[in-house]
Specification:
4 strands
């Protein structure tokens, strides 16, 4: 599944802000019987958050249409992620940087 996500995302990745890190986490990492795919987008602190949200939302919509699974996404800035330590807490897997 992740190979397909990465392959499909390559064609849409230019829509998200530069220097964004994309992680996958949740049940889709551990079982074939998952309800959705959870993605975390860590964006630079300096980007326009409204424009970033719209670009990421469109990106996830493209993924849903091409992968056939619901995509749930979370967006954090670099400083928010460092403060919360979300990646480490949920043992997220980096899929794009």
């Amino acid at each position: 599944m992740f190979k397909k996500i990465i392959r499909v995302s390559q064609s849409f990745i230019t829509e998200i802000p530069e220097s964004t890190f994309v992680y996958v986490f949740g049940s889709s990492l551990y079982t074939e019987d998952f309800n959705d795919i959870d993605l975390l987008f860590v964006i630079p602190d300096t980007v326009n958050k409204v424009l970033s949200y719209e670009a990421i939302r469109k990106f996830c919509k493209h993924l849903e249409e091409n992968v056939g699974s619901v995509i749930d996404f979370t967006i954090l800035t670099n400083s928010e992620e460092q403060e919360v330590g979300f990646v480490e807490q949920v043992q997220a897997l980096l899929v794009y940087s």
